[in-house]
Design brief:
This is OsmC family protein. InterPro entries: KH_dom-like_a/b (IPR015946), OsmC/Ohr_fam (IPR003718), OsmC/Ohrsf (IPR036102). It comes from Alistipes inops. This protein is of the alpha+beta class and 142 residues long. The chain has two domains: 1-40; 41-142, 2-Layer Sandwich (GMP Synthetase, Chain A, domain 3), CATH 3.30.300. It has helices at 42-65, 102-112, 116-120, and strands spanning 4-10, 13-18, 24-28, 73-81, 86-96, 126-133. The protein has a three-stranded antiparallel sheet, with no helix packed on it. Strand 4 (73-81) and strand 5 form a beta hairpin. Helix 1 runs antiparallel to helix 2 (102-112). The longest helix is centred in the middle third of the chain and has 24 residues, at 42-65. It is globular and about 50 Å long.
Length: 142
């Protein structure tokens, strides 16, 4: 059984439905590729999936460490290449609300590197990841 169904709506737009939940997402071609840019583009969605996947795995690791990552955000920039038109690079900047021990940082960052979305991208897609930590917080490994 399908986990996702996508319907072409015309005018370079699609409606994606997550079958289990019924949640829907619209896509639109970007303005630099004849679209209106009114919804997320499919290539933006790939970049967003990478950031979301990495952050989810980091949160799972943080949960095991008994620390909270709520409020952590990732700012993502997708860089396109031409001939063929493709994603050349995805830049991810993670901003954490706390400043954790070196050991906790290694565990959290290492968890993000196991992301199956990232592992599924072609090796030619450069993944540039930068971590930014706030001050005055800690982590004790239990």
């Amino acid at each position: 059984m399908a986990t996702i169904q996508t319907l072409y709506l015309g005018d370079l737009r699609t409606e994606i439905t997550h079958v289990q939940s019924g949640n829907k997402v619209m896509t639109d071609a970007p303005t630099d590729n004849n679209g209106k840019g009114e919804y997320i583009s499919p290539t933006d969605m790939v970049a967003a999936a990478l950031g979301s996947c990495m952050l989810t795995l980091m949160a799972l690791a943080a949960r095991r460490l008994e620390i909270e990552l709520k409020g952590t955000r990732v700012e993502i920039q997708k860089v396109m290449a031409a001939n063929p038109r493709r994603i050349a690079e995805i830049k991810l900047d993670f901003y954490f609300p706390g400043s954790y021990t070196d050991r906790c940082r290694r565990i959290i960052e290492g968890a993000g590197e196991t992301c199956p979305v990232g592992k599924s991208l072609h090796p030619d897609v450069k993944q540039t990841v930068t971590y930014h930590y706030a001050e005055a917080s800690s982590c004790e490994v239990k």
